[in-house]
Amino acid sequence: MVSGCTTLLICFAKSALGVVDSHRWVGPLIACCIGYVLSDLASGIYHWGIDNYGSAKTLVFGNQIDAFQHHHKHPWIITKSQFAKNHRILAGGVTFIVLPINLLCKDPTILAFIGAFSGCIMFSQQFHTWAHGTKNKLPKIVLALQDVGILVSRSQHVAHHRLPYNNNYCLVSGLWNNFLDGYKVFELLERIFFFIFGAQPRSWSGLDLEWTEEIETQSLCDSQY
Asked: Fewest beta carbons less than 10 Å away: which of 1, 125, 186, 212?
């Protein structure tokens, strides 16, 4: 976790120094906004992938696939997990990918994009955790950011944990959910994958009986909103 945060700080610091030297801040600011928007799309694609394909034995991604399947059975446990535990895998990925970019790149606009994109991805698990929190336990600033759509809202993410369990995958802001679900983008990708590779997504298998308890649990939690 420390390595990921340090890597992000270096990225933003180099970008800020570049802005000071060049006196050009519009490009990096726009790049940050684009990075934020695209991070939501990336989080949705990744979430869809590990929700629907692979197993605990899958190379590289196995632990996360297993963790997300466990999360679907016991979703509120995420609110009780330690911050570092929730973020260590993504922080490691950010360090591995972004650190070399920090060493090689001097363009403040590129660094601003990379910093915003990778930062939102790294902390997407925290945004996800807040989306499972009850209103009376969340900081007011978080509630405000959820209400205006900057962070994925609790009401939007709850839909992901209800039948048919195949929508609202995005975990940063949820901005892309309406587009991806409305145009059935993931359904199209699933059909393409099945046609080419013969791989059937978990979303086609119907209701997992181990998830039925969550429907009742969510109803109780919703009453606290």
From this structure: 212
